[in-house]
Amino acid sequence: MKTSSFFNRSELTATLWAFRRAFLIVGVLSFLSNLLMLTPTIYMLQVFDRVMTSQSELTLLAVSLITLFLFGVVACSEWLRSRILVRAGMRFDEQLSTRVFNASFEAYLSQSSTTPSRAFGDLIQIRQFLTGNGIFALFDAPWAPIYIAVTFFLHPLLGVLSLVFALVQAALAWFGHRQTIAPAEEAAKAGSETTGYLQSKLRNAEVLEAMGMIGNLQARWGRQYMAWMDKQSTSQHLTHRITAWSKFIRYSQQSLSLGFGALLVIDGQLSPGSMIAANVLMSRALAPIDQLVTAWRSFAASKSAFERLEKLLRDFPERDPALTQVAPSGQITLRSVEASAQGRTTPILKNITFAVLAGTVVAVIGPSGSGKSTLARTMVGIWPEVTGEVLLDGMPLQRWSRTELGPHLGYLPQDVELFEGTIADNIARLGEVHSEKVIAAARCAGMHEMILRFPKGYDTPIGEAGGLLSGGQRQRIGLARAVYGEPALIVLDEPNANLDDAGEAALIRTVRELKAKGKTVFLITHRPGALAVADRVMILRDGEIFADGPRDAVLASLRPATAPTAPRTASLQPA
To answer: What is the distance between the alpha carbons of residues 310 and 323, in angstroms, rounded to a whole number?
Structure first.
């Protein structure tokens, strides 16, 4: 059976629609609970109009026992619907958590404003709303007209009075939505930006302390923090003002309905039991509306979170898990590739085209700012704004599942980031630690003996971001991580930037071992010593390939260019 187009409009809505049975059961339980909430009204009518008139203790006992039983049914209904919604919320979170993680991670890589923490905060916000009082108010709200209708049966004037209060309360809820949603969103956004700003700067706490920059940081953060406090204060003032008006209306309703009922009793138009029952019914009719006013801020926040999460899942759809490919050999091809970045009028990489066979070692050199690191990120598929084709064994990188492709790629960024855990955890890419693979990767990176000298060997904790290691040690562990599992394509961005002579010699040995195993290696470097191991040299200038070809031919073509009278060397054709 084909689902209606309404429920196909987004992945998030479809996920919620999958819980329609749970919501249906909650609706039935809400129907039962709200229907039985007429019990106090009927009980009062029986006590005032029947028991007190007949003076029958047996009637009072029977009516009281029936009422207690019905109250027990109400309590069970309330407990069951809460339990069902909590379990549905947990399943909702379980079904979407992995999907949201992958989408938010891709959004972060694409330099979007979405961060994983914000996306999971939105998911939690939706789940909490689905299991909180706000959702109960939505289920109970349709009963307000029914309670008002029963009040009309007691007396038309009382029904009109309850209807007036309900309309006033509903108008207040609408006004609260219009007035509070924008300030609440601004306050939440400012809070997220302020917290993120401080956390990002504290990563460089040592630099801040050493150069006396903490005061300057505190001043900048303080301005953002005060702006956040102002926005939050504005939002809270509006919310509290609307809540105060809601309480005023509710208290006025309770007193005025009782006074108006007493007037009808004095005139003989209403019995005392009906007067008390009408007061209870009016309070019950306005309770869901009052709950909506109280939970309006949560509803507005959940609505915004839903829209952000819906957009995130739409912009970064799930990759087809059926896209399995044969393990690549390492041949990589770029065709008319251009890489751009926000805020730049010209591309970083311009019309990059080349093909590299498997088992080739390519040294990429060029001045700072020529696009070497951007080329490295483009080849491993993590640069966000790329046009053209990046092919691995003739297959576009987008056709690969990242989980499946990851083990076939090795990447060492210029700024090595390690993760909290042990040395073995980091080399094994935070996956299951296979001792033989970890040791093989460490030996390949020339790190095995050094690791064994640590207090706990491979089980030595490295601290947050590898803070307990030197720059050279972090770089060599990052190199071991890049070659873990013998990937087919390995891209090393300035792998010798923090290495001493012994470390660079170990790097050269590593590259030669990888070449002997038929791996494709891109070596981005400024040091001429690393060129000795390269089969091919590629020179970038201003985002374009200035020269590309066999190592000896490219280096020989550059020598005459150093003489003052020599003509400028033309770019070589790709080998």
So the answer is: 24
Location of each CATH 3.40.50.300 domain in the chain: 332-562
Structure tokens at 375: 């080329």
Cα dihedral 131→134→136→141 (10° resolution): -160
Q: What's the rounded Cα separation, in Å, for the pair 89 and 482?
A: 39
Lowest average pLDDT, out of 73-87, 391-405, 415-429, 463-477, goes to: 463-477
Contact 292, 176 (CB under 8 A): no
Can you say whether residue 378 is alpha, beta or left, with left for phi > 0 and alpha for psi between -120 and 50 degrees?
alpha
- Predicted structure pTM score: 0.62
The pLDDT confidence band at residue 522, using thresholds 50, 70 and 90, is very high
Q: 332-562: what CATH class?
A: alpha beta
CATH 1.20.1560.10 fits 8-315, yes or no: yes
Residue 4 has a pLDDT of 43
**Structure confidence by residue, pLDDT tens digits, 243-253:** 788 778 777 87
CB 273 within 8 A of CB 47: yes
Contact 484/447 with Cβ under 8 angstroms? no
CB 121 within 8 A of CB 129: no
Q: Where in the chain is the domain with CATH 1.20.1560.10?
A: 8-315
CB atoms within 10 A of CB 33: 21
**Among 396, 401, 391, CA closest to 331:** 391
Residues 6+ apart with CB under 8 A from 152: 158, 159
Phi/psi for 491 (5° steps) reads -115, 120
Contact 34, 143 (CB under 8 A): yes
**Residues ≥6 apart with Cβ < 8 Å to 121:** 305
Q: Please list, in sequence order, all residues whose beta carbon lies within 8 angstroms of the beta carbon of residue 337, skipping any fewer than 6 positions away.
A: 349, 351, 352, 353, 378, 386, 387, 388, 389, 390
Residue type, 357: L
